[in-house]
Design a protein that fits this description.
Layout (H helix, E strand, L loop, with lengths): L9 H8 L5 E5 L5 H14 L7 E5 L2 H15 L1 H4 L3 E4 H11 L11 E3 L1 H14 L9 H13 L4 H5 L5 H7 L5 H14 L2 E3 H14 L1 H8 L4 E4 L7 H11 L5 E5 L14 H4 L1 H4 L4 E5 L1 E2 L4 H11 L11 E2 L15 H10 L1
Parallel strand pairs: 1-7, 1-8, 2-3, 2-6, 4-5, 6-7, 9-10
């Protein structure tokens, strides 16, 4: 048996050894999903897959760094460095720079942070003679961000696509579409993208340039995605396009831990994975190494009431633990203080 497989339990090992075709790893809390992801990448390399043919996407720079360190221990730092591993945005920026001119941007385009974007919105409001007390810059930017994540660009926005224009009128802010258009024009003239543009323009590039799609998709034989339950529509469409040829898409997540719907995450991405990929294999990591059985059993009882969930039954590998105490608080601040002082 490979040294990579020896530390794994049976469920984890089966997931790591499955190296071909689409697969969904449903990983309950504390079930060792990071170990499985890193072991699977190391196992692929051990089986002869070139590291630079593997694309691994995470949501945080910290997670990517920790994973790469673990993989380096298993396969050596030299090979681990060749992996395409990082956050969605950090990896996609590299692709966009390769094809920046196709999108009308210089290769040296810069990225606006939130402060830069708010300043630009303020300038747009001033140019359009709109009251920034009604059209609060941060709120306008948030609105534009949501539209971009839904892949609604300024012209469709102004034509009523997605219901944005009607909603703006309802909230007495009918001219947000003008701000959106001017903001995008200003950014492009300045050779600037904001954080949301990275996913938006990645989708535009893959849709409008068959050459770019063939080139970028053709660079990889395997794609792995962490925290798949937190992906939004823009990320989902990119992954579908990049994996369309080889179908070697491995996603790891837990529908029960989907908490980012407010910022565009679509739980249907993970719930519909088997519909999107009918040949997908599903692996369940149900052994919890983090929490006591009292906590895990209580969580199972609550999660069982969720609608449209992926069935799983987590089991604690720990002891029974203390009984759960119900704490009532009058505010979020009081709740935090009560928990911290316990």
């Amino acid at each position: 048996m490979s040294e990579i497989l020896k530390p794994l339990n049976e469920e984890q090992r089966k997931a790591v050894e499955c190296t071909e075709g689409p697969m969904l790893i449903v990983a309950g809390a504390g079930s060792g999903k990071t170990r499985v992801l890193t072991s699977r990448i190391a196992y692929l390399i051990e089986k002869g897959v070139a590291p630079d043919r593997i694309l691994s996407l995470t949501f945080t720079k910290k997670a990517a760094g920790e994973m790469k360190e673990r993989i380096a221990v298993m396969v050596g730092e030299k090979r681990a460095r060749r992996l395409w591993m990082g956050t969605f945005h950090s990896v996609f920026i590299r692709f966009l720079r390769d094809y920046a001119e196709v999108l009308g941007f210089p290769k040296t385009f810069t990225i606006y942070d939130t402060t830069d974007s708010v300043s630009c919105i303020k300038a747009c409001l001033k140019q359009l003679s709109l009251d920034d007390k009604l059209y609060k810059p941060k709120e306008v930017l948030s609105r534009i961000s949501k539209a971009k994540n839904d892949l609604v660009t300024p012209t469709p926005y102004s034509n009523g696509v997605g219901g944005y224009l009607e909603d703006d009128k309802h909230h007495k802010k009918p001219d947000i579409y003008k701000v959106y258009r001017l903001y995008c024009e200003t950014c492009k003239k300045s050779g600037v993208m904001d954080f949301d543009d990275i996913l938006l323009y990645m989708n535009i590039l893959l849709k409008n340039s068959p050459e770019a799609l063939a080139d970028i998709a053709g660079r990889f034989d395997h794609i792995l995605v962490d925290e798949y339950q937190d992906t939004n529509m823009a990320q989902y469409l990119i992954l579908r396009k990049l994996a369309a040829g080889h179908q070697n898409l491995c996603v790891v997540g837990d529908d029960s831990q989907s908490i980012y719907g407010f910022r565009g995450a679509q739980i249907q991405n993970i719930l519909n994975f088997q519909k999107d990929f009918p040949k997908a294999q599903v692996f369940r990591l149900e052994r919890n190494y983090r929490s006591t059985s009292t906590i895990v059993n209580a969580a199972n009882g609550l999660i069982a009431h969720n609608e449209g969930r992926i069935p799983k039954n987590c089991v604690s590998m720990g002891d029974e633990g203390e009984k759960i105490h119900l704490v009532r608080a009058g505010s979020e601040q009081e709740e935090a203080m009560l928990i911290a002082s316990d």
